[in-house]
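dude i think i finally got it to work??
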Amino acid sequence: MLTAAPAERFGVSDHEGRIAPGMDADLAILSADPATGDPLTFTQVKYTIRAGRISFHSRNTVIEPPY
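look at this
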């Protein structure tokens, strides 16, 4: 999966690079912000979405604002 700029560069932006209806996307929803610099935030996966379906969700998942 690619973000918008690389998808455009590689000529696949018609179906990759954005989160929108009809686009291909695999997502990992984390419980913490990885931009904090703490690599352990990547271990706190709440949901994994592949091909438009939730393939994993952790127990006790509560989505709280801001979202």
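Residues 19 and 56 are 19 Å apart (CA to CA).
im so relieved honestly
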